[in-house]
Structures are given as C-alpha cells and as structure tokens.
Design a protein that fits this description.
EC 3.1.26.4, 6 helices, 199 residues, Nucleotidyltransferase, domain 5, cytoplasm, alpha/beta, metal-binding, manganese ion binding
Length: 199
C-alpha cells in the first residue's frame, strides 16, 4: 500500500525522473502535488506497470493532482553537466513550475540538491512507497515515451518507438551502422569496444 505523505506538511511534492540509463533522448522529470484523500487504483512505480496501464493512469493523475509539471533536459545538457546533475536539474525545474510552491519535497533515489531552501528527503525506491513519487514516475515515463515516439519519426532506423533510447542490442547495432544523431548522448559509451565507431 503506497503512503500518502512523508513529511506531515500538507503541500508536499514527489519527484522522479525517467531515461537516466538511455543512450538517446532527454532525461525527463516530473513533480506532483497530490490532494489529501488521493486514491488511484493500480498506481505504483512506473517500472512495475505496463505501458497500457501507465497511459491509462496519466490523465487521471493530471486531473486529480493539485499541481504537476514535467521537464525534458536535452542530450546536449546531459553531456555538459553529466547525467546525475541533469536528472537533479530536471527534477528541480519541474518543482519550480508547481503552483502552489511545495513546503516539502520527497525525491526518488538517494541524490538531490536543495532548491530555494525547500526542505527535502531522498527515499530509496520512493516510487514504490509514496503516491506522489509514484505519480511523478508515471508522468516522467509517459511524457518521455511520447517524446521518443515523436523523434522516432525523424530517425526510424534506431527504433526508438520500441526501445525508447535504451541500450538494446538493436539500438547499438543501428548506431554502429548509421552513426549518431543530435539526440544521442555523446558522453555515454554508445557502443561496446568491439563495435567502435570510426570517428
């Protein structure tokens, strides 16, 4: 059973990101403030849910949330500041878009940096413990998947519609064959040693 609140403060937001381990596409974060008596069957850590259920939950979360926001940070920024900092920055930017401003922040994982002096706690596996983090994980994942489906049209040979930019065998083979795109994260090891790109 997911818990409603961690801090005891009424305006608490949960935040999470998606796409951290991908070779292409943005890292996407969401932040969500839920009302006191929020209930939503099936809501859980987005990784535990099928795509169909996530798609079904997305509009329900948006409709019932007091406030929610989503941020995409592009590969260029990821390459400049590294994926951990980019993940945190995407979460911070999402939090800054929330109305009202949260009094407390709960973050999935174990790393975060303070934003506007709002107190926060990092919670390992928070997306399977707290409703607001689970809701943020669903929004981050569904918005990112939509983004990957869209850029798939531009570069169908990488099959991002299916792999969403994750390092699947098929994705790596396409990089070896066609090279990289503006959506690839150049600071990541895009190919194993045996498939070196001729640069």
């Amino acid at each position: 059973m997911l818990l409603h609140n961690y801090s005891g403060f009424k305006i608490e937001c949960g935040t999470d990101e998606a796409g951290r381990g991908c070779l292409a596409g943005p890292v996407t974060a969401a932040a969500v403030i839920l009302p006191d008596h929020f209930e939503l069957d099936l809501l859980n850590d987005s990784k535990q849910l099928s795509e169909k259920i996530r798609e079904k939950l997305k509009p329900l979360i948006e409709e019932k949330a007091i406030s929610f926001a989503v941020t995409h940070l592009e590969p260029k920024i990821i390459d400049e500041i590294n994926i951990l900092n980019a993940s945190i920055k995407a979460m911070q930017q999402s939090i800054l878009k929330l109305q009202p401003t949260p009094i407390y922040i709960i973050v999935d994982g174990n790393r975060f940096k303070p934003i506007n002096n709002i107190p926060y706690s990092t919670i390992i596996k928070g997306d399977s413990k707290y409703l607001s983090i689970a809701a943020a994980s669903v929004l981050a994942k569904t918005y990112r998947d939509e983004y990957m489906d869209k850029i798939h049209e531009e570069f169908p040979m990488y099959n991002w519609k299916k792999n969403k930019g994750y390092p699947t065998k098929e994705h790596r083979e396409a990089i070896a064959k066609y090279g990289t795109t503006k959506y690839h994260r150049m600071s990541f090891r895009l190919l194993p040693e045996q498939l070196k790109l001729e640069l």
